[in-house]
Amino acid sequence: MARILLIEDDREVSSFIRKGLEEQGYQLENAENGEDGLFLASTESFNAIILDRMLPKVDGIKLLKALRSLGNKTPVLLLSAMATVDDRVDGLQAGADDYLTKPFSFRELQARISVLLRRPLSLAEEHVIQMDDLHVDTLSHKVCRQGQALELKPTEYRILLFLLQHRGEVISRTLLLEQIWGYHFDPQTNVVDVHISKLRNKLDKPYEKQLIHTVRGSGYKIEA
Length: 224
What we know:
Layout: E1 3-7, H1 11-23, E2 27-31, H2 34-43, E3 48-52, H3 60-69, E4 76-80, H4 85-93, E5 98-101, H5 106-117, E6 128-131, E7 134-137, E8 142-145, E9 148-150, H6 154-165, H7 173-181, H8 191-203, E10 212-215, E11 219-222
Parallel strand pairs: 1-2, 1-3, 3-4, 4-5
Antiparallel strand pairs: 6-7, 7-8, 8-9, 10-11
Helix pairs in contact: 2-3, 6-8
């Protein structure tokens, strides 16, 4: 079953798309603004993304550029009422795989999604993250180390996935607060350190080789 992320703030349009695609057997997740959409797209795995161009908080073009800069190759269908040639070119150059103008028929939307899902770089071929003896299946959310399944809570899993998406990079506590908890300010909490500690107890403590490293005064990074 293909998993699709729909990022659309118009609830009537969103309901129309969701109803039609779910009737076709697709599994949908929905975000109503660009900020939530970017979070879901960068922390979870989808076979395709349907992205509205005009969104609150973060517009579709900025979201798309941010997603591609993270190395995310999930096929994206961009929706927009902006229909000029320049508008379509801007969307495609930002990283969209296809561009559909509003209003549109559901048949055409479905046909375009079917084409995107047939492309060779679909999630079906890229859903496994392997680093040293750590194995993460982003479709089933199954995490294993040395073949042993690890029982991670949802927040622990999101932290691990975000670190893996930026492996080798130092990730600050501020960035984790923003990406995982949605804080855009420092709430003077040790929630990051507490969750990192819990994650380490499951991911690192039982094993000889440590994967999560503290960079004193800066944050954390994951590397083999």
